[in-house]
Design a protein that fits this description.
Low-confidence stretches: none
Shape: elongated
Mean pLDDT: 89
Helix content: 40-55%
Largest sheet: 2 strands, antiparallel
Number of strands: 2
Bound molecules: zinc ion
C-alpha cells in the first residue's frame, strides 16, 4: 500500500479524533459563554443553553468516533459491544489489535 493510500485510509479516523477532542474543549468553554449570555438571558437558561449544546456536540462526536470501522476486521475501532466499554482514543483496534495508522496487515 502506498503512503498516500495509507494516509487516506486513516484520515477519517484522524478527523473524528480531532473533532472528539475539540468537542471536549467546548465543555469548559460553556462558562465564558454563560457569562456572555447572562447579559441577555435570565438564569439558569444562560448556563443551561451552552452547556446542553456543548454536551450534545460531545456526545455526537463520540458516537461518530466509535462508528468508524477498523480497516482489517470491519468492526468498531474503539468500542466493544460485548465488553460494554469504549476507549475513545485507542492505540490499536479493540477487536483485532490492528495498530492505529498501520499500513500493513
Ligand atoms: Zn480491527
Amino acid at each position: 500500500m502506498t503512503n498516500e493510500a495509507c494516509a487516506g485510509l486513516w484520515s477519517g479516523l484522524r478527523a473524528r479524533r480531532v473533532a472528539y477532542v475539540a468537542s471536549m474543549l467546548g465543555i469548559p468553554a460553556t462558562v465564558p459563554a454563560a457569562m456572555l449570555l447572562s447579559r441577555w438571558i435570565a438564569a439558569p437558561l444562560h448556563f443551561v443553553i451552552p452547556a446542553a449544546a456543548a454536551l450534545a456536540v460531545y456526545v455526537a462526536m463520540g458516537k461518530r468516533l466509535i462508528r468508524w470501522p477498523c480497516p482489517r476486521c470491519g468492526r468498531s475501532f474503539s468500542a466493544r459491544q460485548d465488553a460494554g466499554r469504549t476507549i475513545p482514543l485507542p492505540s490499536a483496534c479493540v477487536h483485532c489489535g490492528l495498530p492505529y495508522e498501520a499500513c500493513e496487515w
